[in-house]
Write a structure and sequence with these properties.
Elements lengths: L12 E5 L15 H6 L1 H7 L3 E4 L27 H13 L3 E6 L9 H7 L6 H4 L3 E2 L22 E3 L5 E3 L14 H16 L4 E4 L17 H4 L19 H12 L7 E4 L5 H7 L6 E3 L2 H5 L4 H18 L4 E3 L8 H4 L8 H6 L9 H17 L3 E5 L21 H4 L39 H4 L1 H4 L6 H15 L6 E2 L6 E5 L4 E6 L5 E2 L4 E5 L8 E2 L3 E6 L4
Parallel strand pairs: 1-2, 1-11, 2-3, 3-7, 7-8, 8-9, 10-11
Antiparallel strand pairs: 4-6, 5-6, 12-13, 13-14, 14-18, 15-17, 16-18
Length: 546
């Protein structure tokens, strides 16, 4: 793809890096930007179009880096702005675009603005950048509303002078007041700052959370709707997915379009499909993550329904669809797809991955099949670091090792997201933290990482790493337009064709099925024999005469 092609993102493959867990160059046990730069050749060999970096900004790590103390700098533990510039230059030299996370809903409580707010009086301009309110009760001792934080507990924290501030995540992440023009202008400056340094696009964290109904009196949600975003009439939730948020993104689009080529953006918006389309409009962010696809189980009928609806809504918005199976917030799909239908994933994590017992082989077969299915769909595919190695969720991390605030903030009822953030294995040498870095790793790595390391799989026919490499090579070669045509098949078989004559067939059933005629280009499992496709397998075909 041309580096100046404004539509490069529409059918791109984008690889998410969680910087603290990718590669450590200085030996402190935490991944850093120089480590990423040294390992960019892995992404070039893999064949991705872009790399998306989770936050690398100064942070107290109260929420894995999403508590940002300075939106226009690099955490000293991860490097410097010069290191960032070197990484961008190396990526661009390898033909890889760079996307960075923007966290506009909240800051760290260590941000200079919030520290100023704490040292200022109620009603001051400094406090107006955030959401401060007087409490209820005779002495203001009760929170202003019944709103709950995403990680558990009330969404308000009291400060010494008696006022309360809003935090929809941890208490260390105070929410911005997006009715404040100073907040809006500061984020325009942030978008320009990183764009001027060569960033090609942005992933917008909690994109549905910026606009809030702060009119007095603030309204409670009540037991019926507390925490249930989709059960209220569209656009009426007091702090999620309000219609006013789209004016913010139309404003941002003018910033993106001032660059040549325009900077791209993708929304993390946990909203239903019919609402997600608004974030992806061409005059707003352009794309939005499709979490309905991620959350759909191993079912042909349900996947067909979600794929069809996702393509239709993306087309209606003038956007391209997005597809993702894993990220830094969810159980890795190699493990998730191994669980029996209807399993409680959180309960499984709390059991250290023992109840129910999972068939790791089945999980990997399904994960590989799911990957080929995803990569065959029109639109952008987002990969999460380590999935190309077939890494499982590390579900048995000891309680003492857990760092995700979800664990404590939910009263230890949810184990959190550390299991998908364990640092990557590059080599088979356990003594060297499997090549992650010379000083160990900030989360313990399991022994199975030796056999799953990049070194162990490099050049090995049939390995998951080589499957990804070949899939991305072929995808680039046979990619057509953004259309898809379903071909008649049994309920648990997904068979569709692309405009170039390329077809994808996925057998989600428990028995072999008849394979359609055509040349097999790639299979996620054993090469089909006797004209049959094995269970939990995807093949790509070139249709006869294509």
């Amino acid at each position: 793809m041309s580096s100046q092609d404004p539509d490069w993102w529409r059918q791109a493959v984008i690889y998410q890096v969680y910087p603290r867990s990718y590669a450590d160059a200085d030996g402190d046990g935490i991944g850093d930007l120089p480590g990423l730069t040294r390992r960019l050749d892995h992404l070039a060999t893999l064949g991705v179009d872009a790399v998306w970096l989770s936050p690398f900004y100064p942070s107290e790590l109260k929420d894995g880096g999403y508590d940002v103390a300075d939106f226009r700098d690099v955490d000293p533990r991860l490097g410097t702005l010069d290191d960032f510039d070197a990484m961008v230059a190396e990526a661009h030299g390898l033909g890889i675009k760079v996307i960075v996370d923007i966290v506009p809903n909240h800051s760290s409580d260590q941000h200079v603005w919030f520290q100023e707010a704490l040292n200022s009086a109620p009603g001051s301009a400094a406090r107006d950048r955030y959401v401060f309110r007087d409490g209820r009760g005779e002495q203001g001792e009760l929170p202003p509303t019944d709103w709950e934080a995403n990680f558990g507990g009330n969404a308000w924290k009291r400060v010494p002078d008696g006022q309360w501030y809003l935090h929809l995540f941890t208490p260390e992440q105070p929410d911005f007041n997006w009715d404040n023009e100073e907040v809006r202008e500061d984020f325009r400056s942030t978008l320009r700052f990183w764009s001027d340094r060569g960033v090609d696009g942005f992933r917008i964290d909690v994109a549905h959370g910026l606009a809030k109904d702060l009119s007095e009196p603030l309204r409670d949600l009540g037991e019926q709707y507390r925490g249930l975003h989709d059960d209220l009439p569209d656009g009426t939730h007091p702090f999620y997915d309000r219609d006013a948020v789209h004016e913010i993104y139309r404003d941002w689009r003018t910033v993106f379009d001032a660059y040549d080529p325009p900077r791209i953006a993708v929304a993390e918006a946990w909203v239903k499909n019919s609402r997600r389309v608004h974030y992806a409009r061409p005059d707003e962010l352009g794309q939005a993550f499709n979490f309905e696809y991620l959350e759909t189980g191993w079912s042909g009928p349900r996947l067909r329904e979600v794929i069809t609806a996702s393509l239709a809504t993306a087309r209606a918005a003038g956007a391209s669809a997005t597809w993702v199976l894993s990220n830094h917030d969810v159980v890795r799909h190699t493990s998730r797809l191994a669980l029996p239908e209807g399993s409680d994933v959180q309960a499984w994590l709390l059991s250290d991955g023992r109840e129910p017992a999972v068939d790791a082989g089945l999980g990997l077969r399904r994960a590989r099949a799911a990957t080929l299915l995803m990569l065959a769909l029109p639109g952008s595919s987002y990969l999460y670091q380590g999935e190309e190695l077939g890494l499982p969720e590390v579900a048995d991390l000891a309680h003492a090792d857990l760092q995700d605030p979800v664990w404590e903030q939910t009263g230890r009822r949810r184990k959190g997201r550390d299991g998908c953030r364990v640092p990557l294995p590059w080599t088979s040498d356990a003594e060297g933290s499997y090549g992650f870095g010379p000083g160990g790793s900030w989360l313990p790595q399991p022994p199975v990482f030796a056999a799953l390391s990049a070194q162990a799989q490099d050049g090995v026919e049939g390995s998951t790493l080589e499957l990804y490499r070949e899939a991305l090579r072929l995808r680039r070669k046979v990619q057509g337009d953004e259309s898809l045509t379903w071909i008649s098949s049994p309920d648990d078989v997904l068979h569709f064709g692309r405009s170039s004559g390329w077809q994808s067939v996925t057998n989600l059933s428990s028995v072999p099925v008849q394979l359609p005629a055509g040349e097999v280009l790639l299979s996620s499992g054993e090469t089909p024999a006797d004209g049959h496709l094995a269970p939990n397998t995807t093949v790509w075909l070139r249709a006869p005469g294509a």
